[in-house]
Amino acid sequence: MPEGLWTKCPGCEAMLHTLELKQNLGVCHHCGHHFLMTAHERIELIADPGSFSETEADMASADPLGFENYAEKLGQLRDKSGLAEAVVTGRLAIGGHPAVIAAMDFRFFAGSMGSVVGEKITRALELAIEERRA
Questions:
Q1: What tens digit of pLDDT does each residue of 71-118 get?
Q2: C-alpha angle with apex 37: 1 to 4, nearest 5 degrees?
Q3: Which residues, 6+ apart, have CB-to-CB distance to 45 below 8 Å?
C-alpha cells in the first residue's frame, strides 16, 4: 500500500483516506477527533485565496538565559518545522474583509509562548489597530 494515503484515527482507530480527511478539515467523520493542523494549514483554511502576507517572519528567539543545548534545539526545530517561531503572523482577507492573524504551531516547542511569540502577537494586534483590520 502506498505510504501517506491512509491515516489511522487515534480516537476510534478508523482508517481514513488522506484526501477524505483533508476535505473534512482534519476531523474524523467517525468520532469527531480533531487532528493537529500546522499554522499555515489553518491560515489556508481561513484566508481568501492569495491574500495572506506574513509579517515579522524574521523574528526568532535567542538564548538570553543560556539554557543548556537550547541553540541546538532551536536549530533542530527550525529545520524540522520550517518555522522560525511557534506563531505565524500576517495580513490576510477573510470573506473580502482585511484582517490580521496570529496562528500558533504545535510543531515548534509545542506552541510554547516565549518572548518572541508574545512580541509577534503584540505586533499583530498593533498592526490590526493601526490599519483598522479585524
A1: 899 899 999 999 999 999 999 999 999 999 999 999 998 888 888 999
A2: 10
A3: 25, 37
